[in-house]
Amino acid sequence: MVNYLKTRYSFSKPIRIKDNTILASDIVLYDSKGNKCEFNGKITHHFFKDFWFDLNFKGNNFEFLNTSEKDNSLFYGHAFATGNIEITGPPRNLNMNITARTERILFYLSP
Known about the structure:
This protein is mostly beta strands and 111 residues long.
């Protein structure tokens, strides 16, 4: 579960860990509704320091948010999107390239 988003995902196969690399190769993520997202990439590190991300996601009608008022009274709801997400760089300076469109969206905003 991604706690902040309250979304739960399962993986089609294990993520591999080898030496100083965490590797995802041709993995399919499934959201709680059974929608799919292709996941590829790697996270490199030096003995769990100096992390570097190179991750790619390609989803279709994939659930990205599933929160309630109890989780965050100012902003909550359900969101699904189709598109590509690339995340690269070190944690303190991540680059995100997102090309996506919303599908089903239901948000609640509090003034």
